[in-house]
Amino acid sequence: MKLLRVLMVLSLCLSLGGCAYLVAAGAGAGAGVATYAYVKGELKVEYPYDYHAVWNATLRGLKDLRIMVEQKTRDELSGIIKAKRHTGTSVKIKVINKGSKLTVVKIRVGTFGNKEVSIRIKEAIDRQLGIK
Question: Are 50 and 103 a contacting pair, CB within 8 Å?
């Protein structure tokens, strides 16, 4: 079912002229699979994990990358983390609770986005969640 959903999203993205970069990461059935797309300077990641686990993994991932959290606010529906890299570049991460075992994370680095750094942040979150 998840594979079908990923294939449908990939088909949609390709039909829109390649405006998005989409990847499925993870290993096999039963393992945590995170899908992500980079569109208009923002990396959007869907994690099949509990909201609180993803929130905590995001904070630990930023700490591992030595990205300083300046502000964090959240409730049971969503949260926002504002941080700064050592270069002074801003990082904004939205963590959105989509229900049991589905959490969306949106990452924007700088005003216009930075795909490479966004993916590095995603990978740091993945490691904290045990996704390889």
Answer: yes
